[in-house]
C-alpha cells in the first residue's frame, strides 16, 4: 500500500480547500508547494492547511495475517461525547453532511455494504435526504444514533505488531418499516482514507479542554467507545475462522 492511496488527491484537496475558503473569506490562498510528509511538516501548517499524518507503508509480503473487522459506535455511550448532537456546536454528522453536499468529500450508497463502488452525486445525496417514500425516514443529522466502522487488522511479521486501519464509516439511523416496526439502517458509507485530510482540518468537540484534537487524531488514537459486531478472517492461518462462512466484506 502506498501513501498515495490513503491521501486525498492533491487536486481534489485544493478544490475542497478552495470551496471552504470561498465560504469563509473572499481572500484566495496559494496552494502548498507539496504535500507534507512528516510530523514536522504538518506542525508547521496553518489550521486551514492541516493534513493528516500519512500512514506508514505496508507491503503485502510483511503481513502475517489480516482480518476484516466491523464495529459499532453508539453516540450515547459514555466516552463518545464528541459524536453527540449539541445545539450550540457543530457535531460530527452535521460536519459530514455539509461536506458531502458541497462536494468536498464523497458518499457511497449504503446498499453496496461498504464496497465503495456506487458513488452519490451531490444531487443524488440531496434527493436521499428529502424524498424518501416514508417522510419520517428522511435523513437528517439529528437522527444519527450510531456509526458503523469497517476496519482492517493487520499483523506485521517483521515488526511483530498489530496495525488497525479504518476503511469506512457509515452513520446509522432508526427507521420505521411498512409494518410499523422499527429497525436500524445505514445511510451512506464514507471511504475513510480519502477523508482523513478533511477530518484533520476540523476539531473534535470532546467537551474536554485538555483533550484538544481534530477528528483524524480522534480516530487514529482510538478515542471512542465501540463494540465489535463481526470478524472475517480473509487471509490468515486460522482455518476454523476461515471456514465459518464469512465473506470478508
Element order: H for helix, E for strand: HHHEHEHEEEEHHEH
Binned, the helix content reads 10-25%
* Main sheet specs: 7 strands, antiparallel
* Number of helical segments with 4 or more residues: 8
Could you characterize the architecture of this molecule?
The chain is an alpha+beta fold and about 250 residues long. The protein has one domain. The protein is about 25% helix and about 25% strand. The protein has eight helices and seven strands. The chain has helices spanning about 5, 10-25, 40-45, 90-100, 120-130, 195-200, 215-220, 240, and strands at about 65-75, 110, 145-155, 160-175, 180-185, 190, 225-235. Strands 1, 2, 3, 4, 5, 6 and 7 form a seven-stranded antiparallel β-sheet that branches. A hairpin with a 4-residue loop joins strand 3 (about 145-155) and strand 4. The longest helix is centred in the N-terminal third of the chain and has 15 residues, at about 10-25.
Task: Briefly characterize the structure.
With 249 residues, this protein is of the alpha+beta class.
Record keyword descriptors for this entry.
7 strands, 249 residues, alpha+beta, disordered N terminus, 8 helices, disordered C terminus, single chain, seven-stranded antiparallel beta sheet, globular
Topology summary:
Layout: H1 3-6, H2 10-24, H3 39-43, E1 63-74, H4 92-101, E2 108-109, H5 122-130, E3 144-156, E4 161-176, E5 182-186, E6 188-191, H6 196-200, H7 215-220, E7 227-235, H8 239-242
Antiparallel strand pairs: 1-3, 1-7, 2-6, 3-4, 4-5, 4-6
Amino acid at each position: 500500500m502506498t501513501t498515495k492511496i490513503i491521501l486525498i488527491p492533491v487536486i481534489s484537496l485544493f478544490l475542497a480547500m478552495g470551496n471552504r475558503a470561498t465560504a469563509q473569506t473572499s481572500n484566495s490562498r496559494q496552494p502548498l508547494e507539496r504535500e507534507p510528509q512528516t510530523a514536522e511538516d504538518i506542525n508547521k501548517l496553518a489550521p486551514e492547511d492541516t493534513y493528516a499524518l500519512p500512514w506508514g507503508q505496508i507491503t503485502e509480503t510483511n503481513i502475517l495475517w489480516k482480518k476484516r473487522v466491523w464495529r459499532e459506535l453508539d453516540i450515547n455511550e459514555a466516552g463518545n461525547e464528541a459524536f453527540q448532537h449539541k445545539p450550540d456546536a457543530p457535531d460530527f454528522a452535521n460536519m459530514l453532511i455539509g461536506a458531502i453536499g458541497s462536494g468536498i468529500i464523497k458518499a457511497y450508497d449504503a446498499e453496496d455494504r461498504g464496497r465503495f463502488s456506487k458513488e452519490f452525486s451531490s444531487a443524488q445525496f440531496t434527493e436521499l435526504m428529502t424524498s424518501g417514500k416514508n417522510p419520517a425516514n428522511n435523513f437528517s443529522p439529528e437522527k444519527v444514533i450510531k456509526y458503523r466502522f469497517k476496519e482492517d487488522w493487520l499483523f506485521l511479521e517483521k515488526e511483530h505488531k498489530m496495525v488497525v486501519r479504518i476503511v469506512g464509516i457509515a452513520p446509522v439511523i432508526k427507521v420505521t418499516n411498512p409494518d410499523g416496526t422499527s429497525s436500524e439502517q445505514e445511510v451512506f458509507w464514507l471511504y475513510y482514507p480519502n477523508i482523513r485530510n478533511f477530518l484533520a482540518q476540523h476539531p473534535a468537540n470532546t467537551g474536554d479542554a485538555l483533550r484538544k484534537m481534530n477528528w483524524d487524531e480522534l480516530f487514529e488514537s482510538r478515542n471512542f467507545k465501540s463494540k465489535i459486531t463481526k470478524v472475517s478472517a480473509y487471509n490468515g492461518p486460522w482455518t476454523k475462522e476461515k471456514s465459518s462462512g464469512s465473506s470478508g466484506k
